[in-house]
Amino acid sequence: LKDHVEVYDTQGQKQAEWESLGKDAILTSIVASEDNVFVADAGRRIVIRYDTEGNIINEIGRKDPLRNIPGFVIPSPYFDLAVPKDGLLRVVNPGRLRIEAYTFDGDIEFWWGEPSAAVEGFCGCCNPVNIAVLPDGGFVTCEKGLVRIKIYNSEGSFVGVVAGPEQFGAGGTSKICMFPEECQTSGFDVAVDADGHIFVLDTVDNIVKTFTRVKGKS
Questions:
Q1: Residue 14 predicted with pLDDT over 80
Q2: Strand segments (E) across 108-218
Q3: Secondary structure of 77-136 in the HEC alphabet?
Q4: How far apart are CA 166 and CA 216, in angstroms?
Q5: Which SS3 state, helix, strand or coil, does residue 152 take?
Q6: CA proximity to 80, closest of 134, 149, 130
Q7: Are 171 and 143 in contact (CB under 8 A)?
């Protein structure tokens, strides 16, 4: 939902509706970790940390030079989150073409990713658009414009390509978009299961594509 979170039980019955974050909110991602719920707000360019009852604990990522926090640059409404097993919140900072790691209290620990059209980097105005965590702690990333699904290890080093533009039909393009308005499609989402299967939501062809590692390939 654009401005608030709702909670449902396993039968789909609504249990709670949390307070609206206001007219400027554009919620784009949500992830739960133990007693915390993190919500990415692309409209206000912050991450909100809640408890499981919907009470706001703190905000993460607001620009703060004293804490060495650069602030999120969100040119278009793609702003994703993940919490790997190491217990640090990962936040995509698409306008800076990197992924940042934060403590739950909002201290920035490190980041990885660099602007580059080379396969190891992220290119265009604002990438990656979405991420998912692999069972081994690595990451799968999705890029729009020049559509690429890639794998990085837990430290952010490039591992390999899952899929490129040629594997996405109508959704695939080789165009590097320097402005958000040039790339209004191909903001694909990604998920991973416990066996390492990679599921890509192709929002152009309106299907989910499944990828598995080729045996014998690293």
A1: yes
A2: 108-112, 130-133, 139-143, 148-152, 158-163, 189-192, 198-202, 207-211
A3: CCCCEECCCCCCEEEEEHHHCEEEEECCCCCEEEEECCECCCCCCECCCCCCCEEEECCC
A4: 23
A5: strand
A6: 130
A7: no
The residue whose two tokens read 């409209």 is: 43
Alpha helices in the chain (DSSP H): none
What pLDDT digit, counting tens, does each position of 94-115 carry?
999 999 999 999 999 999 999 9
Rama region for 56: left / alpha / beta (φ>0; ψ in -120 to 50; rest): beta
Nearest to 99 by CA among 130, 137, 134: 130
160-196 pLDDT tens trace: 999 998 888 765 567 888 888 777 777 899 999 999 9
Burial of residue 153, with CB atoms counted within 10 A of its CB: 0-12 exposed, 13-18 middle, 19 or more buried: middle
Average pLDDT value over all residues in the chain: 93
Distance, in Å, from the CA atom of 140 to the CA atom of 149, rounded to the nearest integer, reads: 7
